[in-house]
User: What shape does this take?
Amino acid sequence: MEKMTVHLGERGYDILIGSGILSGAGEALKPLGLGSRIAVVTNSVVRPICGDLVEETLQKSGFRVRMVEIPDGEVHKSLATAEKLYDALVDFNMDRTSTVVALGGGVIGDLAGFAAATYMRGIHFVNIPTTLLAQVDSAIGGKTGVDHPKGKNLIGAFYQPRLVICDLNQLKTLPAKELFAGMAEVVKYGVILDSGFFSFVESHVREILEQEHDAMAEVVRSSCAAKASIVEEDERESGRRAILNFGHTLGHAIESLTGYTRYVHGEAVSIGMVAAARISHAMKLCDQDMVVRLERLLAMIGLPTALPELDPEEVIRILSHDKKVRDGKARFVLPERIGKAVVRDDVDPGIIRSVLKA
Assistant: This one.
């Protein structure tokens, strides 16, 4: 097992990475000084796979456990579902010493974290991500929230977990679609931060997709380290952390306009990254070879790269509601080359329209 720390002073926490470490979750939580009650929030897909294991390891370590199951899917990341979680926490007599554990992918982590951040003005939160996307991205950094009909993640809070546990064995349970989706966030780190890591992914696509241990360990370890370094520098996205939104500006719009049902998050981010690269090329910020290299890698992984047929005016309207808007201007993360990106708020709507139509 490997341990890395997100250094945020009193809000800092460890990330544990390894194979088969889920069985030791109870022992990992014991030193944290948590209360006796733990509500494990999971969904109908994850619970049959590892819910019993997590419940057992927590109980063996002396915790009183309540499993809270919600339906699977982004459409359930809502205030209505959050209200049901609050009901479950109240029914379990949870108090300010109690803990919410998220057991699942990004939707579960965002939703459970938001409930933990807001129940009694904040109780302990532990994240156990079971998808690649969650392990490399959403479980780290403290972003929690729910969607609104007019935009993704519009309601939320920054709330850091006490611990993150990434068991690589859980990735073997993923359908191919979810594995591919997680790789979109992995590729993102290479584009915005580390050309060497991008090259590693390019040269190890087969090993990664076949989930060879060393390749997967490197993917999760390097991604977590990249995310942690940016969060440590800019916890609340007032500056540099905004580059983590590469592919997300248009990706979120695509998710919203397709009802959160046509694409999983990573697929939408993949399409959004290609679109952002094309916008960057149109603005003469990067060369065509960079766009081609990115698109080729995403296609090798099995991710979509083509924009769906959407009304460009509807997309621009959705962008105006995006939480990344500053003073009425949508902000785009645009790559200049593999390993370097910039945040721009001066993208001509005409360029957006032309990329969408192309």
About this structure: Residues 203 and 340 are 20 Å apart (CA to CA).
